[in-house]
Amino acid sequence: MRSKRQILHSVALATTLAGSTLSLTTGCATMSPEQCMVADWYRLGEQDALAGRSSDHLANRAGACQDAGYQSDMDAWYAGFEDALPSFCTLDNGFRFGVEGKSYQNTCPSELAPQFLDGYDMGSEIHELERAVTASNRQVNQLNSEIQRERNSDVPKIDRINRLREEMTELLEDIRPMEVELATLRGVAIGRGFNVPR
């Protein structure tokens, strides 16, 4: 995790470049002028930490408000960000973050990262396997539909039907070990006390 001085330097650089294309594309989407006018920077820091954003997000917020003519309170944001990190960087939250397919942005400091990543790695593995099984099952359904269409055509092509069946059989053979691995991983996660979505 970067030091406070490095983060504040990045913010200063971002605000200096407020009129640049980068500021216009990232800043405007980050905060509106109305939000900048009434911003609680401590609360924004908390929200960004709890959403798993990196500390670089402060530069985006500050740049957006600079564009709108408002000053940011970098110290308050950083205080809120740091105070919220222990609530975000937990084992259970890491698992939830991973199983939902969210991208980890190195939010957690070195002393909290291992427990978060322990959960995150398992959750991410489950997420990726679920995606692979879902995609493969979708392909199987598509192949089955093609077979049915071919069989119902005026002049069914037997060779094509056989090729599609072979392809579907191969896919089903690939799916089975993935399903076993997924069920095993889910069982391990439940055994560790994680809240595994169905």
How would you characterize this protein structure?
The chain has helices spanning 4-16, 21-30, 33-37, 41-50, 57-68, 74-88, 91-99, 113-151, 158-191. Helices cover 74% and strands 0% of the residues. The protein has 2 domains: 4-88, no CATH class; 113-191. Helix 4 packs parallel to helix 6 (74-88). It has 9 helices and no strands. The radius of gyration is 24 Å and the shape is elongated. The chain is mainly alpha-helical and 198 residues long. The two termini are 34 Å apart.
What is the secondary structure topology, with strand pairs?
Layout: H1 4-16, H2 21-30, H3 33-37, H4 41-50, H5 57-68, H6 74-88, H7 91-99, H8 113-151, H9 158-191
Helix pairs in contact: 1-5, 2-5, 4-6, 7-8, 8-9
Keywords:
2 domains; 0% strand; 198 residues; mainly alpha; 9 helices
